[in-house]
Structure formats: structure tokens, C-alpha cells
Amino acid sequence: MDGAVRAAVHGDAESFTESVLALTDLPGRAGPTLPARLVDRALTGAMNSGVTLGWRRGWQPADLVRYVGREHGKHAQRMMTDAVAAEMRAYSSATVDERWLDQMSVLDATVWWDRDDTYLSDWAARQGTDRATTITCALHVIALLRTLPQLERLCPPPGEARRTASSTRTATAADQRMLDKIRALLAKAESTDFPEEAEALTARAQQLMARYSIDHALLAARSGGEQEGPGGRRLPIDNPYESPKAVLLANIAQANRCRAVWTKRLGFSTVLGFPADLDAVELLFTSLLVQANTALVREGGKRGPGGRSRTRSFRHSFLSSYALRIGERLTKATGDVERQAAAEAPGTGLLPVLAARDRAVDDALGSMFPELTEHRMTGITDREGWMSGRAAADRADLHGHTPAIGSEG
After folding, report:
1. Is 233 exposed, middle or buried (0-12, 13-18, 19+ CB in 10 A)?
2. Which of 91, 230, 237, 324 is the most exposed place for a label (fewest CB within 10 A)?
3. What pLDDT, on the 0 to 100 scale, is given for residue 278?
4. Bridge partners (DSSP) listed for residue 407
5. Hey, which residues does 404 pair with through a beta bridge?
6. How far, in Å, CA of 352 to CA of 395, rounded?
7. Cβ–Cβ < 8 Å for 4, 137
8. How far apart are CA 281 and CA 285, in angstroms?
9. Which of 313, 265, 280, 40 is nearest to 149 (CA)?
């Protein structure tokens, strides 16, 4: 097993294949079922210990599942989900952060098999794969887990969290109603065939998000809450056109009092901010990506002189322009709501409260990413794509001014 993992890490395909065959067959052992169970137990144990190592290196359940899927596909993604579920059996729920439990629920990470020493055999039957394919998948998962880079810790790993009534963030009924209303507006914006309607719906959603954030900021200031400061959330940045997508997320984050750092090599951005603001960023980013993709489909393919395809350059330029214009309009919408709120309640000290939250987020950014670098967008070569992207952003109706994004590589 260790030899196979080394071969996978170093790209030695021949040695890896030999190891897979040995683990699949193991001739001359005590019987036809005992070797398979030994192999299952060893590989399952290695996956479990690899997940534990991942927690220590700052990875969370969704991070692991998403990353292995990006590197090795859907089968490995399903196996990683099982490995996460298996490893989590070691912890009392009282020592697991609620953000961890939320991710486990979304992933549907549950132990569905009866015994660890028959897990891979059961998994092969469940997925309809042969033994060699199953072992290959397990070895890829183990190799990835053993070579995970260190990430910034966004919350306590399992076994270290201490969940109490004061530390557990639960949405009130009013919070849930507001979030449901925002989701409904964005869903309508995504589904409508009328650009003006999508514009109005998205703008209204951003206004509600800004108001939701302000209400939480004032409540926290009055009650002395949120003493732990800003938190973080990792959101996927997938190909194609990952650079403009990362800029779009950075601009949405900036407009909602958050900061985003793109880790290109791992395919995600880390967004830092207060919980209500993180909710807003995630909701809006997801919706605006859908709206942008819908607009791109409407544009269709593009041809240049001589019939050569320029679809890729058009779409890259389109999304880059879209990201910048969305940022501008989002920031304007947020600023309008903040000025209105300050005028309606002049004695609340709203502006100092918001300024203090901005400083807290910036301090968290500097502490967590002390060697942050910026990258300018490149590859914007299609004028029609740029103008079309700006027009699409105008139709989505949203302000910011962040042509550069934080990145750690």
C-alpha cells in the first residue's frame, strides 16, 4: 500500500499498477476472503488516518470532498465522503463545530456499510466497479490525503470544539424568513427570461442583504456579541474561466464587507467576514454565476476572421467585464442602504460600528494571509465580449471597485 502511494505521488505508473495488482489478488494467502478483508481493513484505516491528518492541516469536510473530486473524479469523491463519515465516528457531537456538522449534512456523509474490513468490497458492489478499480480509487484518495498542504484554520477541528449555548449560532425565525426571501428573489432572477426583471430582483436581494447585515451589526454592538470576530468560508472556483469567477467573488465579498483570497492551485477562494455577511456573499455569488452562465448561453458561439472560433476569448472577456461591473453596482446598492439606515436612526452609531467591523475583517485577513499578493486580470482580448459582459452586469443591476484580487498562488 505504501509503495503504491509513493508511486502515485511520484507519477510512477508502472510501479503503481504492479502494487494495485498485488493488492487485488494476493495469491498464496490463507483463503479467498481473508486477504481481501486484510486489504480492506488496511486501506480503510489509511483513509481514516489521512482524514484526521487533513483536519490537523486546516481542511474541512467539504474541502476534502471537493478537492478529491477535482483531482480524481466522482468515484473518488464518493469514497472520500465515506472516509469522512468513517473518521467522524470517533468524536462526540459536543466536540464538533456546528459548521462541521452542517457540511456533513450537506454531503450526506453517513456510514452505510456494516464492517470496515468489507467496506471496499461493499463499495465496489454499490458503485458497480471491479476490485482493481476500487483499490485504485482508494489509493488515489490515500495519496491525496497524505500530501495535503497546510490551510488556514477557519474553525476548531473535531474533538477541539466546545459547543455551548453562547457559541452556537442559530438563525432566528426572523433571520430565516429574511434569508428565504432573499433566496426566493435570487431564484426568480435566475429563472426569468426578462433582463429588466432579473435586474430589479437582484438589486432588491442585495438591498435586503445589506439591511440584514446592518441589523446584525447593530444587534451585536448592543449586546457585545460576535466576540470571536470574523469567520471564514471556502467557496469553489471552478474552470473554465476561473480568473474572472474569482474576481466576481472578490467584488461581491468587498461589497458585503468581506474579503476574498483565491487559492488557485486548490480551486477555491477563502472569504473572510462576519456570519451574516458570509451568508450574503455565498447566496449572491451562486446566483450571479447562474445568471452569467445564462447570459453566455444566449450569446452563443463566436467566430472571428476566417471562421476561427473566438468563443473562449469572448467568454473570458465577457465574464471579466461582468465581474467588475457587478462589483460597482453592488457597492452602490450597499452604500445606498447604509446611508438610508444611518439617516433613519442617527443615534445608533451605525457608521462607527460598520467601520469597526471592516477593521476586524482586514485584521483577520492580515493575520491569516500575511504574504498575500495581488494579480491583475489578463487575457481580456475580445472587445465585443467585454461590452456584452458589461451590459449583462447592468441588467443584473448591481457596485465595487476591485480590479485586483487577493491570491496566495
Report:
1. buried
2. 91
3. 93
4. 262, 373
5. 376
6. 33
7. no
8. 6
9. 265
Contacts 24+ apart (CB under 8 A), 75-78: 75/127, 75/129, 75/133, 75/137, 76/137, 76/140, 76/141, 76/144, 78/127
**Rounded CA separation 56/81 (Å):** 18
pLDDT recorded at residue 269: 96
For cell 456494516, the residue is 114
User: Of 383, 148, 349, 389, nearest to 247 (Cα)?
Assistant: 389
Report how far residue 367's alpha carbon sits from residue 152's, in angstroms, rounded to the nearest whole number. Answer: 10
Distances (CA, A) of 356 to 103, 164, 165: 30, 26, 26
Judge contact between 200 and 397, C-beta under 8 A. yes
Which residues of the chain have a pLDDT value below 50? 28-34, 165-168, 226, 382, 397-405, 409
Amino acid making up residue 36 = A
> What's the order of all strands across the beta sheet hosting 259-263?
231-236, 268-273, 259-263, 404-407, 373-376
Residue entry with cell 454499490: 126
* Grid coordinates belonging to 171: 438563525
pTM (2 decimals)?
Answer: 0.82
d(CA 309, CA 385): 13
Yes or no: say if 249 and 271 are a contact pair by the CB < 8 Å rule.
yes
Q: For residue 28, what is its C-alpha cell?
A: 498464496
CA dihedral 210, 215, 217, 220 (to 10 degrees): -160
By C-alpha distance, which of 364, 101, 62, 100 is closest to 231?
364
What is the SS3 assignment for 313? helix
| pLDDT given at position 139 | 97
> Looking at this protein, which amino acid is placed at residue 375?
H
CA distances from 245 to 89, 267, 334, 405 (A): 37, 11, 21, 11
Q: Residue 396: what pLDDT?
A: 57
pLDDT at 398: 43
